[in-house]
Amino acid sequence: MNFGSGVIGPEVFLKALSIARNLGYPTYDITTANFDLIDLGDYRRKLGYGDPQYYYRPRKNIVNRPVSRGGMGWHFTGDHQDTIPALYNLLTKG
User: Bridge-partner residues for 6, per DSSP?
Assistant: First the structure.
């Protein structure tokens, strides 16, 4: 999960995932999530180099690249004061 980090968080996560894969750990069918104020619209559509969203690291390194071997990446748009408590409630209360 990435909460609002635009550069460092997504880069560190992707490097850690690459290390785990290089060491032979199973990283298939994982679930990732990005929580941010930025609305990505259809965040699963393919983007070209000319689209500015192509270079948005949380989209590439949290939502799309990690699940290239299976799994699902999600993007949630909203203020953290709303999305984090909502996630907590879903996880603890169902």
Answer: none
CA-nearest of 33, 28, 24, 23 to 2 is 33
Q: Determine the number of helices (DSSP H) and then strands (DSSP E) in the chain.
A: 3, 3
- Give the whole-angstrom CA distance, residue 35 versus residue 32: 10
Instruction: Measure the CA–CA gap between 33 and 70, rounded to whole angstroms.
Output: 14
* Nearest of 45, 88, 50, 87 to residue 63 by alpha carbon: 45
**CA 77, CA 94: separation in Å to the nearest integer?**
21
- pLDDT tens-digit map of 41-67: 999 999 999 999 999 999 999 999 999
Record the tokens describing residue 38, joined without a space. Answer: 């930025």
Q: What would the two tokens of residue 86 be?
A: 């909502």
User: What is the pTM for the complete model shown?
Assistant: 0.88
Ramachandran angles phi, psi of 19, nearest 5° = -60, -45
